[in-house]
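Contributing new complexes? Match this layout with NAP.
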Amino acid sequence: MSSPIVLSGIELAAELNAATAARAAALPFTPTLATVLVGDDPGSTKYVQMKQRRCREHGLGSRHVHLPADTSTAELVAVLIELGADPAVHGILLQHPLPSQIDERAAFDAIPLLKDVDGTSSAAFAAAALGQPGHRSCTPAGIIRLLDHYDVELAGVDVTIVGRSAILGKPLAAMLTARDATVTVCHSRTRDLAAHTRRAEILVAAAGRPGLITAEMVRPGAVVVDAGFTPGDVAPDAAEVASAITPVPGGVGPMTVAMLLSQTVDAAEAV
Ligand code: NAP
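Output block (do not edit by hand):
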């Protein structure tokens, strides 16, 4: 089979970021994203710093709250409520994963819907599932934006998602269902994963297991989206079977951050 089309998130994210920067500059105040990090996980620290940097580069303000690793749910919720009430903060991002003592759902649900620019609250999930307006979970929204940009048909198409986390697999399934796709969601307890992946016209790998998806698991001609961080959940040989594939890095990752910035400006414009 010929080389697959590369679904580049870098170019599309750059376009989206330029539009976001122009919208931010047109506001009479600085749209501001508050980032909240609990603990010192090096990966999370790096991602938060990158999001703050992207804010600065595109004319958004950023405010950072760093809490100790032993922060309780009540303490974290209090911080999120305070940020939620602060008129100078337009969007709030709570970096995950959170330390195990924290009730993650209680924390995400403490973020007011209008400032939940990362789309992680239960209310944002419900809005996405019901096709109602609101901020979307950024990685799923970025994936759909990328597929739309490359004119990948969604309506009526068989999609298999490998992964069912609250920030990726589940909201993506809800959003694709709202777009009339026929969605199968797989997870660690799925029997015969390959039987489900081989059926998919669009296959989304979102398991965080490098190389999990091999060429034999991909339907010839499928569109493959790899949401895993470097080196990716899709083995290199799978690209030989796919008709289109997202690169890692440079596929889903830049789209996630671009959606976050764009939704922060959406929130600021709505004030
Ligand atoms: P997560 O919370 O760890 O969830 C992983 C999901 O994959 C779970 O539903 C798990 O099943 C399933 N899974 C794990 N091993 C599996 C296997 N062998 N077969 C089938 N399913 C399996 O991870 P996440 O936060 O959703 O992230 C998933 C990946 O996306 C990670 O690589 C992460 O780094 C990446 N990510 C990328 C971005 C980006 O911007 N590029 C953003 C977020 C996440 P169970 O539910 O049964 O445990």
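Reviewers usually confirm one structural detail per submission. For this one: Residues 161 and 185 are 5 Å apart (CA to CA).
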